[in-house]
Amino acid sequence: MFSKTLFEDNYFVENLTYEDFEIIPRLFARVGDAEKIAFTDSIQYLYMKTQNSIMTKAFNEHDLDILKIIDSGKEYINENIPECNSAYLAKSIAGTFGLYRKALWNNAPQEVLILVFEKLNLMTKRLNVHNVCTKKEILVFLLVKLGRKKSKFLIKIITRILNQL
């Protein structure tokens, strides 16, 4: 839940896939000292899978929007809320891994698969092994270390399992 005041003069970008990913850093940067951000590790959020949603439709070129969003968001975080770098990296890895799984599952062109895998490789190199990592970060790190070709089978299994949930 977000305070309505965070959205004053702060809008979703039109015609952009993953628009929520794009606006979150700007919303967090507006939170002042008097306001609070609360979190829980309790799983109480469910996705409703609908036809033609980003999550369920086949891969298309607009899905690559997330890579541009991550790059610009990283710059924004560095300039405005650098204390959120590790959280943004975790979210970026999760989003890019979701894109890679989708592209792999839908037999996207090889150049797309190579591009997205290389982005994952660069992101996992930025992980600080001395800090706490999420389970997804650890999983992606291990899959990237296996390499694109060796990890393909495991990623397809993971995708099949997640698609059945």
Topology, element by element:
Blueprint: H1 19-30, H2 65-80, H3 85-105, H4 110-125, H5 135-146, H6 148-164
Helix pairs in contact: 1-2, 2-3, 3-4, 3-6, 4-5
Describe the structure in your own words.
The chain is mainly alpha-helical. It is 57% helix and 0% strand. The protein is globular, with a radius of gyration of 17 Å. The relative contact order is 0.10.
Straight-line N-to-C gap: 25 Å
- CA gyration radius, whole angstroms: 17 Å
The total of beta strands comes to 0
Instruction: Report mean pLDDT, rounded to a whole number.
Output: 84
Unreliable stretches: none
**Strand coverage percent:** under 5%
Number of helices: 6
Q: Could you state the order of secondary-structure elements as H and E?
A: HHHHHH
Form type: globular
Q: What kind of sheet is the major sheet?
A: none
Instruction: Please bin the fraction of helical residues.
Output: 55-70%
- Secondary-structure-based class equals mainly alpha
What labels would you give this structure?
globular, single chain, mainly alpha, 165 residues, 6 helices
Sum this structure up briefly.
With 165 residues, this protein is mainly alpha-helical. The protein has helices at residues 19-30, 65-80, 85-105, 110-125, 135-146, 148-164. It is globular.
